[in-house]
Structure formats: C-alpha cells, structure tokens
C-alpha cells in the first residue's frame, strides 16, 4: 500500500472501472429512485455552484443505489437560447467585427452548434471528474430531436386549448440583443439620476400642470397626465386636455387614485403606456392610446419627431435642452433610482410594446400552487415554498417568445393574404378544406385578425395552401419552455416509454433558489398538464456559495473558483466533502478565496477550506495503512463471524462503545440523508472516522490489537467505508479494494443496517465524559507548555461515576493521580477547564513557577496589544483600504483577529494564575 494517497491515479482508475462495468445504469431490484440533472448551460465551463449541486445529487444517487433501489440519474445540457447566442455574437464581433445579420440566421446557428459541441463535451468531462454517477448513455440536450419533439407537442396542445396566444403587450426589451427578456432575467442597479419638473401646458393656453419625471425623453410618448380625484389642486383640470411638448399632441387629464399618490412630488403623473409597466396598466384601465417611440435598438423612432435617431442619454439631454428653450423646465433635482439591466447583455432594459407569444397562466398556476399547498410537492428548506407560491400567485401570463435565432423556432405559420384578398369567412373555408381530417394541424384568428396555423410535427411549406403563402414565425421559444419539460421529455414523452413507466415521476429535484420561479414552478405546471401528475415529490434548494467577504462569486469580483483547479490540487473527494459539509440550513455558504500562482505561470483562485477534505482523506488513508496488517490477516468475513454481532462477548468497555457509536452513526446518517441534512451527514461520518475510530479507539488499542480488536476494527472500517462512499467515492472504493479485496465493490454493496441491540446511550455518554476529561487535561498541558511525557495529577468535580474507566483516563491523559467526586474542592494554584458534566482541575504547584509564568503572559499581552494598534492604524487608513487588493486586506484583518485572540486567552490564563 502506497505511503501517500495519489488522488489523480486513483480517480482515473475508478472512473474507468465504473464506466467499463456500467455501474451507473439502473440495476436495483427495489422501488425506483430517479433524478434529472439541472442541465448546465452550454455557455462555458462549470463553476463551484455546479460542483456543489452535482455533488449533492450524486450523494443521493449513490446512497439510494446502495439501498438497492432501481436508480437512474439522467444527465444533459441546456441550449440556453439568449445566453449562448449572446456569447457567440460577442465572440463574432471581437474576432471578425461582424454582427449576426452579417452572417444570416443559418450560418449563425451553425456557429452556435459548433460552440455547443465543444462546450458540451467540456462540461460532460467536468461532471465525470467530479464523480457524477449519471447514466451517460441517456445524456440529453434541450435541442436534440427527442426534446424538440416534446416541445412541439407541448406547444401544440396548449395552442389547441387556447392557452397560447399572440398579442401586443408591454415587455422587457434588450436593445442590444433585440429581444424580449423575462423579469427574472433582469438585475437592478442603483444609479444617480435626476427628477426633472416641467410645465405641461393646457391646450387652451390657460396655464399648466407641473409634472416631474426621471425619464424626460418619454414625454414624446405620453397619452395622458393623471391626477388624484381628491386633489384640490388639480380637480378643475380633470377632463381638460394638455399639449405634449415638441409634437403638439392633445392628451387628456385623467383621474386615477391607483397610479397617483397626491402626497408625492407634484401630485401629477405623466402616463406613457408604451414605455412603463404602471402606465401600461393605467392605459388599459382608461383605454388610452399606446404610442411606441422606440426602435428595436433603443433609438427614438418617427413618433419622436425632431428627436428621431437619438438614444439613451443623448435623447434625454436633447429633450431637456428643448424644454429649457421652450421655457417649460421648472427645476432639476438629484435623485437616486433603480434601473433594470439585462443579465445577458448588461444593457439598460427598456419597457417596449411589441407583438409576442404568451401562455395563459391563471388556470395552470392555480393547479401548480395546489401541489405545494397540499404537501404533494415539498420544499427543503420549507421556507422556499413561499417563493414558489408568491410567484405563481401573481398568475401573470408568460411571455414565451424571444427574438433570437438559437432555440426552438415557434411552430406557427402566418397566413399571408396580401396577394389574394378574401374575407375571413372564405379564408376559414380554405383552411378547413386544406387541413380537413388533420388532427395534427390547428388554426385560429388572433386578436389582430391574423390567421395563425400550428403544426404538431410537420414543418409546413410556403405553398401548403394553394393560392396563399404561409410564413414561419421567426421567433424562438423562451429557453425555460423546453427546460420546463425536462423531467418527462428526457424520458421520451410524448411517447409511452419504458423509462416513463419505470422512473416517472422523479424522486427529488436539487437546484438553486434563483430559479424557483423560472424553472421549478414551470416544471410542475407542464408535468401536471402533460403527465397529469407532479414531476417530483421533493425539491431540495442547495446553498449559494459566497466568498469570505460574503460576495457572490463572479468574474467581475475576480473571486470565482474553478472546481477543476480544486480537483487538481486537492482531489475530487476533498471537493465533494467540503461541498457536502457546507450544505446547512443557513443557505449562504462562505468560502474564503485567495490567489495562488502555479508553476506554469497561471494564477488561480483557491480556498484553503478544501484542506479539510484533503486532511480527512489523508487521515483515512494513514489509518488504513496502520490497520492493514491486522485486517488482512483474517479477512473481513472471518472477522465479522468471530465478532458474533448479535451477541458480542467482549467485556471491554471501549469495544462496546465503538460498536454502539458505529450503529448510532448508521442510524443517524440514514435519518440525515432522508431529510436532506447533508452537513449533518458529513459531520456524522467525519467525526466517527476521524475522532471515534482513528483517534480515540485506535489510541486506546494501539498498545495491543488482539484478535477480537482486529475483528472489530475490520468491521468498523468496512462499514465506515460504506457510510463514507456517497461523499468520497474514489478513496473509499480504493481502500475497500486494498483492505477487503474479496468483497463487493462499494458502489454496488448494500448500505449497512443499524443493529439497535448494540446501541447503548449510557456507554456513549460515559465515553463523552472520558474524552472531555482527556481533552481538558491536554488543553491545560498546551496552555502552560507541559510536556506530554510529564506525569501530572487531575481532579474532576462531577456527579459522573468514572471508576470503571479510571485507568483509561489516566493512560490517555498521562496522569500520575486521578480523583473524582461531586463535592471536591478545587486545589490552590491550579488550572481549570469546564466539561459538560462538571469541571477539571490540574494542580500546577511544582510544575510551574507562578511569578515567571505571570511575567511571560504579561509580555505576551503587551506584544499582542502593540501589534493590534499597528494593524488598526493600517486598516483605518482609507488609502490602504481603497488601493490594496482584497486578499491583502483580508489577510490583515485575519492577523488582527489572531492578536485579539492571543490577548483574550492570555488574560484568561493570567486571571487563572491569580486565583
């Protein structure tokens, strides 16, 4: 057995072995357990969030596989329409100085497919390196033929039911990408702007109404000014008309108590229905005209008159200048405001009136809400059900069209009636005749009088109707439309496949909180609609990873950590262990990040927190090396038989304790995993292996490992490898092969069952007391630099009966004398430590020179306090904090915390000596 664990060789070895043996395919005899991967976008490499998400999924998959369930994990990737097209367009401009229109639709889509093939392969390899035990033969892509067929069927069914419609509505418009985007794909920034107050002149020339706005350029699209019906200042103006500056359009003064707060600002509000969400709903209430003043690229159009062609700040400045020239500007005030920006292009979002496709959500949303309200679908942590219900509760129609070229092109054909003008009755007759007895084609007249034809699977030709021309709708579907079908489309719906029969609905969804509305809610909606059942019963929301300063990891912050860098440096098992251990209820996991320069000159971000996982793996490896001779002498099967686990005959207290701890941990890990308490699971197996087995039990036994002890160690380690395998599959599989070469591989070996007869809470409590005393004595040795070899005395004031373990405590603590009792007094000049069951005292007379130790501590405090003054001075220097790298500032803060800790502990020791 190698002296050091070589993670690179062993990870490569077992990835190959599992693949060759087809271990990731469903093979269990029990009930099904299935998961579909949240498909990563094919926009680039995976990040640490993906590593966490897939580690959690893999833990569940490996655990349920070991429970004997018929386990399936379907992998795949998402075409990520707007995100992927934006990345490829950006590269196209950087490398070739071309836009998508220079290439044309067909050529751009070819380029994106090439990108997809490259990055999908990269993502798949990354997932494999993490150890994801997916059935790779079932890998799907949201634009592949199987998923595309599902999209066509889902769209057709909704269209036929009248749940998909086309209409002119106000949407969020990305002026850079020239497409609509969802509310959830926008982020907001606080910026410094202004309030411009200007005179809105009455059409009859008798005066004006003062109006304030943050966007003066939108005056050109105003169709009303609203006032509160009870505002005495403006009651007399209601029903009169105003003149829109520059374009001289007459608009009414309307009364609206919903839009207007009479106590805010001027108490009057300009209404621009085509360019503001609140104004849009006001326009609908009052049946106002909706005048669009923007082109798709954000420039002002012909409705803006003399300002046509201007954009953004230039348009704003020109309108303000014009108001000044007309003597209409009253005042300008500084004002901070929130502006929405596109998450993809980072440009300002414009509210924009355009023709789009929508899904009617009222009925669909209500049904999906009931699934959570009834407990049919459960969220962990439970508080995230509120996010889901709040979003669906708005029942807003879903804009599903995007003005892109990459994605599922909408399967709608518009009937061009320009060449042959016939009335609607005749036109319907033509359609009826052409598509008679065609259940796979449906058509209806839209709200603007246009006939729309939807085909289930066949792409219609331009000349499908004699004498008329069919034109395919150029828009593509929102990415989340195909993603919403993911649980059942990946299993072959709309076909009635064996996978759907055996594995649907899936068991659990593991995902992030950011996409509860975008994805989770919509999957429930579509599964209920298409499958008449929920897509999963449980939703586990994994934590969000932040850096040490509490910031999200991002390129702009320069704090992102590449999981492959962590695997290279620490190993996949170390990555996985830390990912599991940070999955707490808190939901925000902090990982301090620092820069590290590699031999090849590259600079990467790492987190020293992964040392924890590597150290644990090394501890396990070294313990196995130490135990190997004792285990292989007998072999695991003989060892277990000699133990007679149903009725163990060992009289050793420590043997009964380790058996009790082992079975308690088996029981508790199952409970933790069943309830998605991953941090607790990691902690249970870590402390059992590190503390109970490798530290405490081995320390007690290392003097002599008898035949019985060898058997017990063999059984404990054998079982511990099973418990640890879902988190750290590589090292556990390797150690199992080395230590128990004749046993089944861990990936398929049955999960251990807890033996309740061996669990003894009283013995476990007794050993908690023992180790608390031992650690307390050792902490005193450390505080006062007393050598481990020097025999000392200890007194424990406690009600616990420690007689049966007196010798064990003395041996482990290096004591010459040991006494305990409930009413013992503390000796003079002694160190003390609090333990759960009482207090430990260590007499220091004859061991320490009280005066010298007091002087040493005072010097230590003086030195640390001087250092604290220096560090505080540096950190209060604005220039240093402003200009120094974040890692340097963080390092100084850590130094300050260390020095404060030294002062605090030294003062406590000083106080102890003075008693």
The pLDDT mean sits at 91
Task: Report the major sheet.
Answer: 4 strands, antiparallel
Summarize the amount of helix as a percent range. Answer: 40-55%
Name the assembly state. single chain
Given as residue ranges, the uncertain stretches (5+ residues, pLDDT < 50) are none
- How are the strands of the biggest sheet laid out side by side? 6-5-14-16
Characterise this structure.
α21 packs antiparallel against α22 (707-724). The protein is built from 28 helices and 32 strands. The protein is 44% helix and 19% strand. The strands form eleven sheets. It has a four-stranded antiparallel beta sheet with strand order 6-5-14-16. A four-stranded mixed beta sheet has the order 10-11-9-12, with helices on one face. It is globular, with a radius of gyration of 35 Å. A hairpin with a 2-residue loop joins β31 (830-835) and β32 (838-843). With 915 residues, the chain is an alpha/beta fold.
């Amino acid at each position: 057995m190698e002296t050091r664990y070589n993670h690179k060789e062993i990870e490569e070895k077992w990835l190959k072995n599992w693949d060759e043996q087809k271990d990731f395919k469903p093979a269990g005899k029990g009930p099904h357990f299935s998961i579909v991967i949240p498909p990563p976008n094919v926009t680039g490499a995976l990040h640490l969030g993906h590593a966490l998400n897939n580690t959690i999924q893999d833990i569940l998959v490996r655990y349920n596989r070991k429970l004997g369930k018929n386990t399936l994990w379907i992998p795949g990737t998402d075409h990520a329409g707007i995100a992927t097209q934006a990345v490829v367009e950006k590269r196209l401009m950087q490398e070739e100085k071309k836009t998508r229109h220079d290439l044309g639709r067909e050529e751009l889509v070819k380029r994106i497919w090439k990108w997809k093939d490259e990055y999908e392969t990269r993502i798949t390899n990354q997932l494999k390196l993490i150890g994801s035990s997916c059935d790779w033969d079932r890998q799907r892509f949201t634009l592949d033929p199987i998923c595309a067929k599902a999209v066509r069927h889902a769209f057709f069914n909704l269209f036929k039911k009248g749940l998909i419609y086309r209409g002119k509505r106000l949407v969020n418009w990305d002026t850079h990408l020239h497409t609509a985007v969802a509310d959830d794909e926008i982020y907001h920034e606080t910026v410094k702007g202004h309030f411009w107050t200007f005179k809105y002149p009455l059409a009859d020339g008798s005066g004006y109404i003062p109006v304030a706005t943050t966007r003066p350029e939108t005056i050109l699209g105003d169709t009303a000014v609203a006032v509160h019906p009870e505002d005495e200042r403006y009651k007399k103006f209601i029903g009169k008309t105003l003149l829109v500056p520059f374009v001289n359009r007459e608009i009414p003064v309307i009364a609206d108590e919903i839009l207007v707060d009479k106590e805010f600002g001027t108490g009057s509000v300009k209404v621009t229905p085509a360019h503001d969400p609140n104004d849009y709903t006001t326009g609908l209430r009052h049946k106002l005209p909706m005048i669009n003043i923007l082109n798709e690229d954000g420039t002002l159009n012909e409705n803006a008159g003399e300002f046509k062609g201007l954009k953004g700040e230039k348009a704003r400045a020109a309108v303000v200048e014009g108001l000044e020239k007309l003597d209409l500007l009253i005042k300008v005030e500084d004002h901070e405001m929130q502006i929405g920006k596109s998450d993809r292009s980072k440009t300002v979002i414009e509210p924009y009136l355009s023709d789009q496709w929508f899904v009617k959500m009222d009925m669909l949303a209500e049904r999906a809400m009931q699934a959570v309200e009834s407990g049919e679908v459960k969220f962990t942590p439970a508080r995230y059900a509120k996010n889901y219900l709040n979003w669906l509760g708005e029942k807003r129609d879903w804009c599903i069209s995007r003005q892109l070229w990459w994605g599922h092109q909408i399967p709608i054909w518009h009937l061009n009636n320009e060449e042959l003008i016939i009335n609607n009755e005749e036109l319907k007759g033509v359609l009826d005749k052409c598509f008679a007895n065609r259940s796979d084609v449906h058509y209806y007249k839209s709200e603007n009088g246009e006939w729309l034809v939807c085909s289930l699977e066949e792409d219609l030709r331009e000349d499908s109707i004699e004498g008329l021309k069919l034109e395919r709708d150029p828009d593509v579907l929102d990415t989340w439309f195909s993603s919403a079908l993911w649980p059942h489309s990946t299993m072959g719906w709309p076909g009635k496949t064996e996978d759907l029969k055996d594995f649907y609905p899936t068991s659990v969804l593991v995902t992030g909180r950011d996409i509860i509305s975008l994805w989770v809610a919509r999957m429930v909606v579509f599964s209920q609609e298409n499958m008449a059942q929920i897509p999963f019963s449980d939703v586990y929301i994994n934590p969000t990873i932040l850096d040490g300063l509490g910031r999200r990891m991002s390129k702009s912050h320069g704090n992102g950590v590449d999981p492959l860098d962590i695997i290279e440096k620490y190993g996949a098992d170390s990555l996985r262990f830390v990912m599991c251990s940070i999955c707490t209820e808190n939901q925000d996991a902090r990982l301090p990040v620092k820069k590290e320069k590699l031999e090849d000159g590259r600079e990467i971000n790492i987190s020293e927190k992964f040392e924890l996982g590597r150290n644990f793996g090394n501890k396990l490896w070294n313990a196995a090396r130490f135990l190997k001779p004792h285990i292989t002498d007998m072999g695991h099967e003989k060892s277990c038989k000699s133990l007679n686990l149903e009725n163990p005959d060992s009289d050793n207290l420590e043997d009964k304790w380790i058996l009790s701890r082992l079975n308690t941990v088996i029981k508790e890990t199952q409970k933790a995993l069943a309830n998605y308490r991953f941090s607790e699971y990691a902690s249970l197996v870590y402390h059992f292996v590190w503390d109970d087995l490798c530290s405490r039990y081995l320390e007690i036994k290392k003097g002599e490992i008898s035949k019985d002890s060898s058997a017990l160690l063999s059984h404990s380690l054998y079982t511990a490898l099973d418990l640890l395998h879902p988190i750290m599959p590589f090292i556990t599989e390797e150690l199992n092969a080395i230590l128990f070469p004749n046993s089944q591989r861990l990936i398929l070996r049955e999960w251990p069952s807890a033996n309740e007869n061996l669990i003894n809470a009283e013995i476990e409590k007794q050993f908690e007391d023992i180790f608390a005393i031992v650690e307390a004595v050792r902490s005193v040795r450390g505080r006062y630099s007393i050598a481990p070899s020097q025999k000392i005395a200890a007194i424990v004031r406690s009600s616990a009966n420690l007689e049966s373990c007196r010798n064990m405590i003395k041996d482990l603590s290096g004591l010459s004398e040991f006494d305990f009792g409930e009413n013992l007094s503390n000796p003079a000049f002694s160190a003390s430590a609090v333990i759960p069951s009482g207090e430990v005292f260590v007499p220091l007379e004859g061991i320490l020179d009280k005066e010298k130790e007091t002087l040493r501590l005072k010097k230590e405090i003086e030195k640390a306090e001087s250092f604290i003054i220096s560090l505080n001075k540096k950190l209060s220097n604005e220039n240093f904090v402003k200009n120094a790298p974040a890692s340097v500032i963080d390092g100084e803060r850590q130094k300050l915390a260390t020095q404060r800790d030294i002062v605090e502990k030294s003062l406590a020791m000083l106080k102890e000596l003075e008693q």
